[in-house]
């Protein structure tokens, strides 16, 4: 749970913020009604995700509370009755994240939206590709202020190397005019590679070319920024792009991820498996393995479906950990499939480790000792369906020969 500091002297407004922020299960409100209370809270060394601060308090009428909160390096959203240009410039110069006017109920929901964005940003890593040190520092400082982890590259060539080493990067913000490889070419190369199809990309360039934004977006960028830009515009573009990315991830999860186990479902397994099968000649091998929990029906019948679900989820967790480099999916019920493009020797080793782990694990709160059976197909087949059918036939043999086996090479693996 993340602490949110709320500083507001008006009781009604403070109550509204407490209710809205407190309704988020990730947040805990720490409220102060004046500057003196803020001083006392700061002495307690509480870690705050962010602060929502009224600009004018009875004992701090000139925004002194903003300086105090920022001094503790807490991302700060300022609430104010009205904003003019000098005040806007002053607030941003001090380092506030954003300012919200108290002119409608939507304003308070906007505060909560910003706070939720900050929470999500803790797991976001962004690559800034910019050869100008000044421009790079500006963008990096803005991103870090919003609690985003930042990685830097000076040109497109360096950016490709960084992305290969750090696959958890979610967004690239790239300038256009750079040595060795331009931002435009970087976007094109990224979109040509399957692993970067879901990467969010924002192009950046100085004014001068009116069609630059169209070139970037048509080549695969999600958005474009013209330098120089205002802080509010930068955050709006970045946050909107991140929200779009998260929406697409949620859609993907709903379509392709099994709700119970958190691994891919049968649909995804077939779609991606077909692609791997078509290109199997490029890989060290192509193996299809079918895993099935032994005596699962008895567990369900005797202990109930809740325990059965816990068992399946725990079993899937071991599969996911063991076969992290392979395509894994829930085939149906207690059956799972692994499609591997590694060598047969490497796959056999991992199957042996998996079988050993299952035998040594006590499953669910009932401490159940379980085993599983595995059918493997490494023979060249004419289709993925044939490979799955062959693995299923071997699984049937493993069950027929007493379960807790791997077929066709049980004596070598299990």
Describe this structure in words.
- By secondary structure, the chain is an alpha/beta fold.
- It folds into three domains: 2-119, Response regulator (Rossmann fold, 3-Layer(aba) Sandwich), CATH 3.40.50.2300; 123-252, Rossmann fold; 266-413, 2-Layer Sandwich (Alpha-Beta Plaits).
- The protein is built from 16 helices and 17 strands.
- It has helices at 11-22, 35-43, 64-71, 85-94, 105-121, 133-145, 156-165, 183-191, 212-219, 231-256, 266-278, 296-303, 305-322, 344-360, 384-400, 410-413; strands at 2-7, 27-32, 48-54, 76-80, 98-101, 125-129, 149-153, 171-175, 200-206, 223-227, 287-293, 327-332, 335-340, 362-363, 368-369, 372-377, 406-407.
- The strands form four sheets. The chain has a five-stranded parallel β-sheet, with helices on both faces.
- β8, α8 and β9 form a beta-alpha-beta unit.
- α7 runs parallel beside α8 (183-191), α12 (296-303) runs antiparallel to α13 and α13 (305-322) packs antiparallel against α14 (344-360).
- The relative contact order is 0.06.
- It comes from Marinomonas fungiae.
């Amino acid at each position: 749970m993340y602490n949110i500091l709320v500083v507001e002297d008006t009781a009604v407004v403070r109550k509204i913020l407490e209710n809205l922020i407190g309704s988020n299960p990730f947040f805990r409100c720490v409220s102060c009604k004046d500057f003196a209370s803020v001083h006392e809270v700061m002495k307690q060394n509480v870690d705050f995700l962010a602060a929502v601060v009224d600009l004018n308090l009875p004992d701090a009428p000139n925004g002194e509370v903003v300086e105090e909160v920022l001094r503790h390096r807490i991302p700060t959203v300022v609430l104010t009755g009205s904003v003019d240009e000098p005040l806007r410039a002053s607030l941003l110069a001090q380092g506030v994240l954003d300012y919200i006017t108290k002119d409608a109920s939507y304003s308070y929901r906007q505060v909560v939206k910003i706070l939720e964005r900050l929470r999500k940003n803790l797991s976001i890593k962004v690559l800034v590709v910019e050869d100008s040190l000044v421009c790079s520092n500006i963008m990096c400082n803005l991103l870090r202020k919003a609690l985003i982890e930042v990685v830097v590259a000076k040109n497109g060539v360096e950016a490709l190397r960084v992305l290969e080493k750090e696959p958890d990067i979610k967004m690239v913000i790239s300038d256009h005019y750079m040595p060795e490889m331009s931002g435009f070419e970087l976007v094109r190369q990224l979109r040509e590679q399957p692993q970067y199809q879901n990467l969010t990309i924002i192009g950046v360039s100085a004014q001068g070319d009116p069609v630059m934004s169209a070139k970037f977006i048509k080549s695969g960028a999600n958005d474009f920024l013209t330098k120089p830009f205002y802080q509010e515009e930068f955050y709006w573009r970045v946050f909107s792009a991140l929200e779009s990315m998260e929406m697409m991830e949620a859609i993907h999860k709903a379509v392709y991820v099994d709700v119970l186990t958190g691994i891919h479902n049968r649909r995804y397994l077939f779609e991606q498996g077909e692609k791997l099968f078509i290109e199997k000649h490029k890989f060290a091998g192509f193996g299809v393995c079918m895993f099935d929990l032994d005596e699962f029906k008895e567990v369900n019948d005797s202990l109930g479906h809740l325990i059965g679900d816990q068992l399946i989820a725990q079993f899937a967790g071991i599969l996911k950990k063991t076969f992290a480099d392979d395509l894994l999916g829930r085939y149906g019920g207690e059956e799972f499939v692994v499609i591997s493009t590694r060598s047969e020797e490497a796959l056999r080793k991992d199957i042996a480790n998996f079988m050993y782990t299952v035998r040594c694990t006590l499953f669910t709160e009932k401490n159940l000792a379980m085993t599983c059976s595995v059918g493997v197909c490494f023979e060249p087949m004419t289709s993925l369906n044939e490979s799955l059918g062959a693995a299923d036939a071997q699984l049937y043999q493993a069950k027929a020969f007493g379960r807790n086996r791997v077929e066709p090479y049980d004596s070598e693996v299990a």
